[in-house]
Automatic annotation (TrEMBL):
One of its GO terms (molecular function) is ATP binding. Keywords: ATP-binding, Membrane, Nucleotide-binding, Transmembrane, Transmembrane helix. The chain crosses the membrane at residues 20-43, 55-76, 144-172, 251-271. Residues 20-302 form the ABC transmembrane type-1 domain. This is ABC transporter ATP-binding protein. Its main location: membrane. Residues 336-571 form the ABC transporter domain. Signal peptide: none annotated. It is found in: Cell membrane. It comes from Paenibacillus chungangensis. Gene3D superfamilies: ABC transporter type 1, transmembrane domain, P-loop containing nucleotide triphosphate hydrolases. It is a multi-pass membrane protein.
Amino acid sequence: MLAVLGKLWSFMQPCRSRALLFLLIAAVEMTVIALAPLSFKFIIDRAIIPGDREAFALILLIIGTVGTFGIAAGVAGDRLLARINAAVQQRLRMRLFSAMQRMGAERFQATPSGEHVSRFSVDLPVIEGAMTSMMTIGLQSLSVVAMSAVVLFSLQWSMALIILFGAALIYLGPQLLERRARTAFAAYREEFGEMTADVGEYVRGQAVIQGFSLQRTITARFADRLSGLFVSHYRRNAASATLDRVPMVSLLLMNFGIIGFGSYLALIQVISLGDLVAFFTIYTSMGNAVYNLTAVLPSVVDARVSLDRVTELLDMQEEEKSGLKTGLPLQAGPELRMEGLSYAYSDGREALKRVSLTIEAGSTVAFVGPSGSGKSTLLQLLLGLREPSGGALLLNEADLHALDGELYRSSIGVVFQEPFLFRGTLLDNIRIGKPDASMDEVIAAAQQADIASSIEALPDGYMTQVGEDGGNLSGGQKQRVALARALLRNPALLLLDEVTSALDPLSESAVGRTISKLSHGERTIVIVSHRLATIANADRIFVLRDGELAEWGTHDELRMKRGLYDSMWEQQTGDSTIEPVGQGGACDAEAKAERLSV
Ligand SMILES: Nc1ncnc2c1ncn2[C@@H]1O[C@H](COP(=O)(O)OP(=O)(O)OP(=O)(O)O)[C@@H](O)[C@H]1O
């Protein structure tokens, strides 16, 4: 309980003065509640038994005034707490979201998407619920217990001791069960995250599911997931119910003991009748308070699991933040050098093995190779999203990982194999990398990416809304919108990952020509592609095989070598004749490939 309180208090940092004011107001309200039962003693002993009507009226007036004051304090406290809760949630949502954005690529990919979502949809509401119940029922019950204890001792110490002992028993029972309950709560939360991830995946994969008629398979798989979830859900509910039940039983047993002992003391006239009534009233309100306190416990245990999950992410952000470095945005096409560059994924397998090469400043180079040869991994390293496990990656002679990753990536443009469009207009999607870009700049970028005429042909033009994941655009259109987005930044370094993979041969050729036009020496362009026709004009082509640099050169040089590149070219184009592209102009290879592939 204390650990949870400490953590929640730290989350309240920006509204601590409000929180302190709330505690003050709550203290007033609690005092009124805790002392209320004492009014019976005065009414019975000072008004009813002596038959004093004046005293009766005065006592009622005092009770009414104090009660009104207590209610007013309660209402003010409610308002304050509502505001504190909203502020804490807002801050946590923001911090969680920022932490997700700063998460390293490796860790992000290793976390199921449902995990990310359930931190927002499950953990934060649980924390809010626990905070509310701790700050209301919890706090109220604690104060009632403390103040009632003082009043009880002032009335009759032996009865007070017995009641306190009983109250401790009622409270300790659930505490002993807490660890087991926490394990059950954590297991449920984990399974729930997996289920959310499944649902998300099935939503995203609907086209494949329907296309392959996988509904039955998917439903059966989901049913398996639900049976796992059922078990953990049952265990969680059972643990929660036990946490509720144990104090209730203890309370009933205590009632029995106290009624007997208290009545006996009144019978032998150790205490007055007023004392006895006040005693029972205080005992009842104290018992209820202890019971309420234990009823808050399941939500606290639940919140502790949620707090652990949330703070794990927030603390990680601090770790990654502490590694931030300095640097300047790129002004012109940089030189990139790899010296014995290696990368191994967490399973230990090396996706890149001691790659050494130089990408000259302002040149256009391509990485090609069979599937799984390490092209995308290399691109991730170039993006600074993964750290090499061996060797060095130098940008203008500086270690790329000694640079501020955010600053570095803000001056480069990147287009991925699967272009992602955000919900919103096409204009928003293109402008997202440079929010202050003018409309003319946007149109120019769209023209460069060969998408301007398609956008202008749409009824709403640039204001066309794209559905979630760009669902209402063709693959080729999405790809070109993503290219326009990257070009809008006029990046010094442009990274293109399989940009033509979703395009038909004619569009591929058009985008290929666009890329050729972009290569005017002021920017460095790195292209990763399966489709050799797109990259045949590159200044240098690097061929990867099983993570190693197998060969490199221009298209003509590589064809002459009759190696891996040549055989890939032959496979893709069916062309086994070696005809230098250089003699027929820059677009020869591309035109030839186009001829062959159309
Ligand atoms: N997240 C990952 N975890 C573990 N291994 C991975 C991961 N991503 C890729 N790999 C492995 O690393 C190797 C290189 O993969 P990579 O995606 O870089 O190849 P690629 O040349 O881009 O392939 P493709 O052309 O099919 O996209 C492969 O053996 C792949 O199985």
